[in-house]
Write a structure and sequence with these properties.
With about 160 residues, this protein is mainly α. Helices cover about 65% and strands about 0% of the residues. It has two domains: about 80 residues, Orthogonal Bundle (434 Repressor (Amino-terminal Domain)), CATH 1.10.260; about 50 residues, no CATH class. Helix 1 crosses helix 3 and helix 2 packs across helix 3. The N terminus and C terminus are likely disordered.
């Protein structure tokens, strides 16, 4: 069930304006776009007006139909709180290769203990990358130098 936002959250209004602008730029009618997005015209109109929230799956479909990255819907909006930064980070993540498959697979795992283990594993990988250690506990810079590669931190800084 889509949550209704009669007061029109500023982020929802911004996303809705971006959605409507791109739909109109692509010369899609409300009805045609709604059909492609697998939603009713009334729901799409509500999302465009900021009265209804575009759900993550709907946002992914909208990005595909309108041929834009998911972050397009967030660009140029106000960034009043860390929550908005988190939404933008999620949108960036969903645009990464393999992220949608990873998210779908993760969501299909029924065991909360297994999901917790995956999060812990990913966190430990990030910790090692940011501390400069490779999987053996050695300095990733030293290991990378031996292998003739840049350490991950240098590659990230260069990218």
């Amino acid at each position: 069930m889509t949550k209704r936002h009669d007061d029109g959250n500023p982020v929802d209004r911004h996303i809705g304006r971006r959605l409507q602008s791109k739909r109109e730029q692509r010369m899609l009618s409300l009805a045609d776009c709604a059909a492609q997005l697998e939603m009713t015209s009334a729901h799409l109109a509500g999302c465009e007006a900021g009265r209804q929230r575009l759900q993550p799956g709907e946002m992914l479909r909208a990005a595909r139909v309108l041929d834009v990255p998911v972050v397009y819907f967030f660009e140029g909006g106000e960034r009043p709180a860390a929550v908005d930064d988190r939404h933008a980070a999620i949108a960036r993540f969903l645009g990464m290769p393999g992220a949608q498959e990873l998210a779908a697979t993760f969501a299909a795992i029924e065991s909360s203990a297994a999901r917790d283990m995956i999060v812990s594993f990913a966190s430990s990988i990030l910790e090692r990358e940011t501390s400069g250690l490779d999987s053996s506990g050695s300095s990733s810079a030293a290991s990378s130098a031996k292998a003739g590669r840049e350490p991950p931190s240098a590659a990230l800084a260069a990218g």
